[in-house]
């Protein structure tokens, strides 16, 4: 059944709709569902954009919450220029991306951008949350299924002799046998040699290199037994939860969904460890109550029976994050607002060689700046607190790139304030971008500062923490061969 394009202003009473808009809350779900022609979707998209263009690009002149949107997406050769931007409400922004998806449903980049906007891993504003609550659940299920298919690559589990043990349709499927998907992914990329004693390769590559091994596996009547090695240190815990069903309830203890295992809750954005704590403490997690199936059947058998009678085993539910205090997260980005990394706090920047105090100063400049000259730039990057960030589409892009391991590389250049730490043979142990960064190794910067100034004055070398300390410029003069030797093993630290 084809729905007719919406015409004009339909409502001004609904939440978030108290402004001139082409959309009407009671009609937009109908507008975005499948079944209409590409021309109809395109017509609605153009009308939506034309209406929004009248607002201009100055948020201060708009009385409601808005988000920047690329009229022509970058994956369709759109540019990061003002002529290609428009301010949209949260509702309009999501609908615009849905319409683009309907117009080009075979474009995986458009699909991924839309999925990120409604996916639980994204950073929601309160305005977006209101929209997502009203969002068509059928379309959500359609997008989830299609997105998972688009990023699913079959992998082969084999030993060092290329004997095949399993063929999985995707990396995430390996978790059903006790593997960690992150570890498996790293093994496929070649970052790790094995995951729990087994190697993993892309099926298409393995098929070319070892076709006879694959044919041998396919001819087996029974699957070979997996003997997983114990989990390595610092590996995410996996649960032997075979047969441990989990029941998810709403706040009225109506059954929302029943999971076959604890690990399977990950598909809806939940964390197994947090879930177990929620069950033990009988507290809400993601705005839901949780219970082991055996306990639930004793206490809420009627609710479970009603759930099965409806045949709603595959209900789509989402992780609903609680409202939190102001975020301490810091965004590192370029002048075009491309995000390189999001730090949980300013203290974490020292792990990548940045100065905590310099980053803090840059963030504060951004908060109070009145001109471009005062922009918060440090180390060729720009720094903004998450609370002050105004580009949700760039956030969505970042989380997508992070999920697909496609983040831009962060390069820390050396400047004149680097501190060299060496052993007694003057072999470099570590290079610190600034003296303040010695704190990341539990050292006192005052002690290092005193040594640097004392040694310079007396032309001596003093030990601190069984190490010698020297500024890069001085070390370069005295031990150039040692510095060059270090650069060979650490080319990322070479001076630009």
Structurally, the number of domains stands at: 5
The number of helical runs is 17
Low-confidence stretches: 1-20, 232-243, 312-316, 319-325, 370-374
Strand content: 5-15%
User: What does the oligomeric state look like here?
Assistant: single chain
Percent in helix: 25-40%
Structural class determined from secondary elements = alpha+beta
Strand order of the largest sheet: 10-9-12-11
Radius of gyration: 28 Å
Which key terms come to mind for this protein?
single chain; 496 residues; alpha+beta; four-stranded antiparallel sheet; three-stranded antiparallel sheet; 17 helices; 15 strands; globular; disordered N terminus
Q: Layout of helices and strands, plus pairs?
A:
Layout: H1 25-32, H2 38-53, E1 67-70, E2 85-88, H3 90-103, H4 108-118, H5 126-133, H6 137-151, E3 155-158, E4 164-168, H7 181-189, E5 199-202, H8 203-209, H9 211-218, E6 246-249, E7 255-259, H10 272-281, E8 289-292, H11 293-299, H12 301-309, E9 330-333, E10 339-343, H13 356-368, E11 377-378, E12 381-385, H14 392-403, E13 419-422, E14 428-432, H15 445-458, E15 468-471, H16 472-478, H17 480-489
Antiparallel strand pairs: 1-2, 3-4, 3-5, 6-7, 6-8, 9-10, 9-12, 11-12, 13-14, 13-15
Helix pairs in contact: 2-3, 3-4, 4-6, 4-14, 16-17
